[in-house]
Specification:
The protein has two helices and two strands. By secondary structure, it is mainly α.
Length: 115
Amino acid sequence: MGNEANTIRPERKLREIPWNSSRTVFLFSARTSVFDPFEDAGEKVNRKSNELIEEFHEHFQEFAEGIVAEGREPNIESVDRNKVFQGWAIQKIAGLQLLVMDLIEWREREISRRN
């Protein structure tokens, strides 16, 4: 009857994953200990998912009201929710891609600066 919360897992090694011909991204994890930083990841994902769902509903309402006010649709119910969601999701994904690219460039500058 071991206490799994106190089980120390073997340390994970630094992993190198090719990014493209001119870049390499390094993914690594912190040294493992009795504290597991990913323990409540599921709860965080659910909370963030609910926030994004609420954000989309607010975005849709504002967007649909604007389209109706412009006369492009007769009422909010006629606005295609799937098309609005696709555009909103693409913008979110594009923002994430830009953030990741900025982080990679920042990391490369830091590595170059230290060398």
